[in-house]
């Protein structure tokens, strides 16, 4: 506990109001309050000031938080590897003995000869260039994400016409999208997160059909799950979050299908929601 | 790459904490625009240092401490300049001079008229319910100074209460 005796009376009474006094100090101060009119007035003034300040500071919480701050937090990427892991990594000391160094030199020489042989017998660079240009160009991921973002903006602006087939026609949605997109899927139930399934659409993403499942919440916010068949390698990066102005996108890939969850960029749980959808769809 | 769950949670928690963190930053900086810059910088620092957050205790205590440290560092880097934040008497005189031109009936003016750290201390103890020791740790000052700052803040608010009654809001 603080030694209050050296402090001015207003500080002592402040500590009394906050219960940060010892029983003896409390007793002394209460006795003084009972006998000293000025101390009583000061005590009341401190209490009144605390009440007034508390209410005024609560007013600040009613002010809107700038959206730029929310976006800034959501778009900040964490460090790729944690410092703790780096610190605990065992150090490898490279100090080979003479025979080890000789063996390594011979192995490197043999490998170098091998590479040189294969380079010498490989076809001309012009031939490779010709062959490469005949291969179909890989699908442009950015183009389809751009289309998904544009459709999401369109949805936000027409909340009364969100879907082509409403949620009530679940079987129709299932058979229609499975045929149109060419991938099996389930409609994820996001009611636990307060998102209600509204229905489905088929849109075009980079000139190819994309299935779109549309959800809304009580605040009128709209999210949509978009998916399309693709030929990306299985090790493609997943759950990558990007923000395009007011739209937030979380992309992932699974079993020959690319997915995007599009929603308001201010929605902090978009990434977590995407992970739940990935296990349910 | 799948992001670690702790990072996702920290960013989500930071967004949830944002209104209160911003209020704390306003008490430190006195100006909304400067406070917003401080909040942005602190959140980025917190995400970068996310591995240091053990998940125990109050997240806001850790974030507030980062904010106060950042604010102190920024102040050191800034060139010294004349500030209206001096002692209480100077402040009251400055406020009286300004009152004819600027509407002082906002909490922002009240905060900027208080000496450094006083409104932050009031916020931590009176509004957010931190103990004296916790508030002292966050603000990096001895516990003995906490009670003096609180008394100053309460008396100043009590003085303002007469001129700006609650029912006007």
Automatic annotation (TrEMBL), chain A:
Organism from which the protein derives: Rhizobium indigoferae
Protein name: Anti-sigma factor
Origin organism lineage: Bacteria, Pseudomonadati, Pseudomonadota, Alphaproteobacteria, Hyphomicrobiales
From TrEMBL, chain B:
Gene Ontology BP annotations: DNA-templated transcription initiation
Domain of life of the source: Bacteria
Classification via Gene3D superfamilies: 1.20.140.160
SUPFAM superfamilies with a match to the protein in the record: Sigma2 domain of RNA polymerase sigma factors, Sigma3 and sigma4 domains of RNA polymerase sigma factors
UniProt xrefs under InterPro entries: PhyR_sigma2, RNA_pol_sigma-70-like, RNA_pol_sigma-70_dom, RNA_pol_sigma70_r4_t2, RNA_pol_sigma_r2, RNA_pol_sigma_r3/r4-like
PhyR sigma2 domain residues: 17-66
Molecular functions (GO terms): DNA binding; sigma factor activity
Name of the protein: RNA polymerase sigma factor
Organism: Rhizobium leguminosarum
Organism phylogeny: Bacteria, Pseudomonadati, Pseudomonadota, Alphaproteobacteria, Hyphomicrobiales
